[in-house]
Design a protein that fits this description.
The structure holds two protein chains of two kinds. By secondary structure, chain A is of the alpha/beta class. Chain A is 27% helix and 24% strand. In chain A, the strands form seven sheets. In chain A, strands 5-2-1-9-19 form a five-stranded parallel β-sheet. The two termini of chain A are 31 Å apart. Chain B has a single domain (9-78), classed as 2-Layer Sandwich (Translation Initiation Factor IF3). Chain B has a four-stranded mixed β-sheet, covered by helices on one side. In chain B, β1 (9-12), α1 and β2 form a beta-alpha-beta unit. Classes of the chains: A alpha/beta, B alpha+beta. The interface between A and B is medium-sized, with 14 and 17 residues.
């Protein structure tokens, strides 16, 4: 019998799962399995690299690779209209793509990621509103503005949670502070950091680590600041809590939502996140329907990050392979995430945690910065092929 | 139990970890009318400090904090009325 495994999304999670499954399935189970990745863009983007684009430390074109090049040759890739999934019908175990084709499947993995939702904050996307580095286009535009910046007040931070790569807005702030210093603009620039809860990071131990660093760098922190609206004419950002902050440049992680496809298919919560079992990664309510979710698309209480998608991807690949090989499932997901946090001046720290064990960030060192740089370079050889 | 207070919407955030329950409350109040009452149920210990602190900072009113069982607490909040 031929087993059809459909993977929607060619990001970290989707690509890794496809390649890992190819590796785990051998003999009869390989011959009898058809793996198909649905990815409309057909291009894989290393999103963490966008952080460096505004500082001219990264060429954005080097963050892109054709998805086909990252998949083993015996994995099918559908892109363009043929890869644009418009509806998921779990009751029939079928997908509908934009070219009108129905695709039956036996196993389905949703690795659909998240999307920026600037429309959730009035004024965010207006000219003179907020900038960000959560897309190639936005990070390039922000770089152009930073190059012209000659002093004033910069407000950085996060519009609302959840958002992708939780350390990134802090990293941006530290890199910005260092860059302003190098350009001789630090004295002429006031830096403010806003965050929705009562500390500068969702995890308490990391907050305790970064709060003194922000203080040392002269960054004024505004907690319990949930961005409610932005007035691009007056250049004022207002919080739900009633605080107004003027800015010359405003750099905020935009609001995020799950993909429209998930909402349209009735699989998401109010914001489009997929309710997902925190250990098995089955989509809740579809435990017996061979339906899994990984990465940003889920509602799991872990970082929306490539790292989480990477660890989750290994678990889903192992679970599906074990079922096809009639052996017990060996592993479950326990919330593992590992990532670096740049602290500026060519230093970084390392965050390693899971559901039960919060991170204990070590003192910033050059070594962690170099390791992050190495990961940024060797990502293509390590993560999508599932070598680690 | 809350006597005369009419709860417009109750959000069950049990099992969600910090800052999940607080953010659920913030989202709920953002879409509520002024003067409406929203409740959130949390099993996260951090909510015991985070939610009252945020309610005060945002100028809302903490109507009640009720222990539902060994793990779950219900926070009942009225959205501020701006003068």
């Amino acid at each position: 019998m031929n087993v059809r495994i459909a993977i929607v999304g060619g990001g970290v999670g989707g690509t890794l799962i496809a390649n890992r499954l190819r590796h785990l399935l051998h003999g009869d189970s390989r011959r009898e399995t058809q793996i198909t990745v649905f990815d409309a863009a057909g291009t894989h983007t290393y999103q963490p690299g966008w952080l460096y684009v505004p500082f001219e430390q990264q060429d954005p074109r080097k963050l892109l690779r054709p998805e086909r090049q990252l998949l083993q040759h015996n994995i099918a890739l559908l892109s363009g209209e043929a890869g644009r999934v418009q509806r998921i019908i779990p009751a029939d175990k079928q997908l509908l793509t934009a070219d009108g084709q129905m695709h039956p499947y036996d196993y389905l993995v949703l690795a659909t990621g998240s999307r920026n939702a600037p429309e959730d904050v009035p004024g965010f996307a207006a000219a003179g509103g907020a900038d960000h580095f959560y897309s190639e286009e936005a990070s390039v535009r922000l770089g152009e503005k930073l190059a012209r910046f000659s002093g004033g007040r910069i407000v950085t931070g996060v519009a609302s949670v959840p958002y992708r790569c939780p350390p990134a807005p802090l990293e941006f702030t530290f890199l910005l502070e260092a860059a302003l210093r190098e350009r001789g603009l630090r004295e002429q620039t006031e830096l403010h950091y806003v965050f929705p809860i009562n500390r500068p990071f969702p995890i308490e131990t990391v907050s305790e680590f970064v709060a003194p660093l922000l203080d040392q760098r002269g960054v004024q922190v505004h907690t319990f600041f949930n961005v409610d609206s932005i007035d691009p004419e007056r250049k004022v950002v207002s919080s739900l809590e009633g605080e107004d902050l003027e800015y010359d440049l405003l750099v905020l992680a935009p609001p995020h939502r799950g993909q429209q496809l998930i909402t349209d298919s009735g699989l998401g919560d109010r914001d489009g996140w997929i309710p997902t079992d925190r250990n098995t990664l089955h989509v809740k309510g579809y435990e017996d329907a061979n339906l899994f979710a990984v990465g940003d698309a889920t509602d799991l209480p872990v970082s929306k990050s490539g790292s989480a998608a990477h660890y989750e991807g290994h678990i889903v690949a192992e679970t599906i392979a074990a079922e096809l090989q009639h052996r017990p499932v060996q592993q479950q997901y326990h919330g593992r995430v590992a990532c670096f946090l740049e602290t500026g001046h060519s230093q970084a720290t390392f965050l390693w945690f899971d559901y039960e064990h919060p991170p204990k960030p070590p003192k910033p060192r050059r070594l962690w910065h170099l390791e992050k740089a190495a990961l940024n370079t060797f990502y293509w050889q390590l993560i999508p092929p599932a070598r680690v | 139990m809350i006597g005369p207070v009419m709860i417009e919407r109750e959000i069950d955030a049990r099992g969600s970890h910090c800052p999940g329950p607080l953010m659920e409350l913030i989202r709920g109040l953002k879409s509520a009318q002024e003067g409406e009452v929203i409740a959130v149920i949390s099993t996260d210990l951090g909510s015991n400090t985070d939610i009252p602190l945020w309610v005060q900072k945002a100028g809302n009113e903490l109507v009640a904090v009720e222990k539902l069982d060994a793990e779950a607490t219900r926070f009942v909040v009225r959205k501020h009325v701006r003068a």
